[in-house]
Amino acid sequence: MHTLIKLPIVIATAVAALAVQSQAVAQEKVLNLYSARHYQTDEVMYDTFTKTTGIKINRVDADDAGIVARLRAEGAASPADVILLVDAARMASADSLGLFQPIKSAKLDAAIPANLRATPTAEGVTWTGFSTRARVIIYDPLRVKAADVATYDQLADPKLKGMVCTRSGSHPYNLSLFATVVERLGDAEGEKWLKGVVDNMARAPKGGDTDQVKAVASGECGVALSNTYYVARLLKSTKPEDRAVMEKVRIVFPNQGTSGTHVNIAGAAVAKHAKNRDNAIQFMEFLSSPFAQDYFANGNNEFPAVKGLKIANPAIKAMGGDTFKAETIPLGVVAKNMTKVQQMLDRVGYK
């Protein structure tokens, strides 16, 4: 015997089930994060954010170039809500491609200094720095006096002929520094300075920042540039060879008597086509909290972007990173010099 079921009842039941399922999905709070940060200490921040807010984080990890390429390929279909990149030059480049959207947040305005954020418009701010790192000078005390490397300007002094080593001039870490110097000195003097640095090189640019520090320790170079978190890693290392490196070199925070030491950022932005905009802003605000700032500074050897927070990291304190005078030229303004500086590097032969 067959049981007759009225079709309208079946359809109504199915529609009701779909409605409940859709409502459950809609109520699930999520944040899609594209991150160029690959630090284990960040996991604690993400977990704490989820436990505090109930917002689940779905994360895509890649390097800065990979993230930008993915965003451009995905276009309006991109699921990304927040983008984390690790350099002001990279933030500015992605911003110029229209990959971010401006936001307004009283919490961020109050917590993060204006010079560590994109230049604001009437619509808001497109990207914000949440941690900083200083670009310091490393030198060999057997060959160079501290007074001879007290400023970035002195890297072009003929006194350092055949001693200077750096990674590629076109690397974002150097581009950000050079763009700051050009902003401070002006185009003509800035390009002259870059030419002087090239003239003083011990060898063609190569390797990363850690390689530059080791090259000074080995005697290949007398002077080099490095971000502070690379130096901190060597200082905290338990490897005998790393300890030996740091015993042979000294660290200078340049321009302490004038403009201050150049600082760069790791920053975040809300993606242009963010589907979870409110969650994205809430996450951005969380990154400025004392809890998150502590993890930036003490977990990954960076400096907090929020002023007034104490630094407990012994490696940072050992190099003087808790007391130095930082440059205050707005990174949003400096970022506009990137293309111009790259052209200068080409003209002076800075590889």
Description of the molecule:
This protein is of the alpha/beta class. The protein folds into two domains: 29-132 and 262-311, Periplasmic binding protein-like II (D-Maltodextrin-Binding Protein, domain 2, 3-Layer(aba) Sandwich), CATH 3.40.190; 134-261 and 332-348, D-Maltodextrin-Binding Protein, domain 2 (3-Layer(aba) Sandwich), CATH 3.40.190. The protein is 44% helix and 15% strand. The protein has helices spanning 7-27, 41-53, 64-74, 88-96, 106-111, 172-185, 187-199, 209-218, 228-236, 240-248, 277-287, 290-299, 314-318, 331-334, 338-348, and strands at 30-35, 56-61, 82-85, 100-101, 128-139, 164-165, 223-227, 250-252, 263-271, 303-304. Strands 1, 2, 3, 4, 5, 6, 7, 8, 9 and 10 form a ten-stranded mixed beta sheet that branches. Helix 2 (41-53) links the parallel strand 1 (30-35) and strand 2 (56-61). Helix 6 crosses helix 15. The relative contact order is 0.18. The model is unreliable at 1-5 and 7-26 (pLDDT under 50).
Mean pLDDT: 90
Helix content: 40-55%
3D shape: globular
Secondary structure class reads: alpha/beta
Radius of gyration: 24 Å
| Second-tier CATH architecture of the largest domain | 3-Layer(aba) Sandwich
Q: Can you write the helix and strand succession as a string? A: HEHEHEHEHEEHHHEHHEEHHEHHH
| DSSP summary: helix tally | 15
Topology:
Elements: H1 7-27, E1 30-35, H2 41-53, E2 56-61, H3 64-74, E3 82-85, H4 88-96, E4 100-101, H5 106-111, E5 128-139, E6 164-165, H6 172-185, H7 187-199, H8 209-218, E7 223-227, H9 228-236, H10 240-248, E8 250-252, E9 263-271, H11 277-287, H12 290-299, E10 303-304, H13 314-318, H14 331-334, H15 338-348
Parallel strand pairs: 1-2, 1-3, 6-7
Antiparallel strand pairs: 3-9, 4-9, 5-7, 5-8, 5-9, 5-10
Helix pairs in contact: 2-12, 6-7, 6-15, 7-15, 8-10, 9-10
